[in-house]
């Protein structure tokens, strides 16, 4: 049997796990990452990174300008014939196809010397020893970056707290030139479609809905303006509609002993917020700092503080999506007092945003 000794053993090789590996290697910690999938790995998501996530990429040593994506300069909410938008003031976001982002994270982790075990099965992890296929891995820290249905979370008995709000997400790419530099969120009756420019001739369309039977094609007719934009646009070749579950979940704790959780494994917010990848990158950086200091309790405190605002905004946006009358009133208020949207968005993304304005 092969044997590996490491400081940090990361279960899950998605963006959260790779960001953790990168941040730990930048602090001279030995890292092994295991994932059963073949990279690069895609995901049903909106594929937008907000400005703070772009800054986090730079901190991880990845130049966003070298990623073949599209700059995103603001957010636009669309409700029927009404719309309201705001621009980011200090920085821009990034729209990028998930597999392309994943490949850049893989290359950065490999460049720094992280050991990446792809298409490998974790059979057990206990007492500082993990069995991955026929390889024994001895570790000091076990990190769960294995997503919403985290095995590490269940194994460590880090249960969720309170009611969980579950919705369903689907994503597809369309071959059409982006018509805006904004991420558009189209609000419907208990569902949202959001559009992100991800390449010169490609947009990502994501659906978040209460109905597991909904699909993008069946939902589009309820959004005539967007359906008009996509009329005649072809789906990207070999691109199948991807689906996932999106959950609002708060955990009692993200740390126990020498085990810590990061990304969606550490609690999650609804996909409509667009905050998931930003939170994962920031958590990875703070977790690596805590491990380097040999004290993950400070990471647990940071995580609690970090999640308060996104959880609040996540619940608010889902509540607004579920109540048509309140949504109509909210849009009318934002139309009459345009600065309100900018202020709400600034609070949501944690950066200063310029004054919101109506779309002519």
Query: Which structural class best describes the helix and strand composition?
Result: alpha/beta
Number of helices: 10
Mind telling me the C-alpha Rg? 20 Å
Unreliable runs: 352-360
The level of helicity is: 25-40%
Largest sheet: 9 strands, mixed
For this structure, what is the CATH class of one domain? Alpha Beta
Please state the overall shape, judged from the principal axes of the Cα atoms: globular
Beta strand count? 22
Can you name the CATH architecture of one domain? 3-Layer(bba) Sandwich
CATH topology (level 3) name of one domain? FAD/NAD(P)-binding domain
Mean pLDDT: 91
Distance between the termini: 67 Å
Relevant CATH superfamily of one domain: FAD/NAD(P)-binding domain
- The proportion of residues in beta strands is 25-35%
Task: Note the topology.
Layout: E1 2-5, E2 8-11, H1 15-25, E3 31-34, E4 48-49, H2 51-59, E5 70-72, E6 74-79, E7 82-87, E8 93-95, H3 98-111, E9 115-117, E10 122-126, E11 129-132, E12 135-138, E13 141-144, H4 151-155, E14 160-175, E15 182-187, E16 191-199, E17 202-209, H5 216-219, H6 224-230, E18 234-235, E19 242-251, E20 255-256, E21 259-261, H7 276-292, H8 297-322, H9 324-336, H10 339-349, E22 357-358
Parallel strand pairs: 1-12, 2-3, 2-13, 3-9, 6-15, 13-21
Antiparallel strand pairs: 4-8, 5-8, 6-7, 7-22, 10-11, 11-12, 14-17, 14-18, 14-19, 15-16, 16-17, 20-21
Helix pairs in contact: 1-3, 1-7, 2-7, 7-8
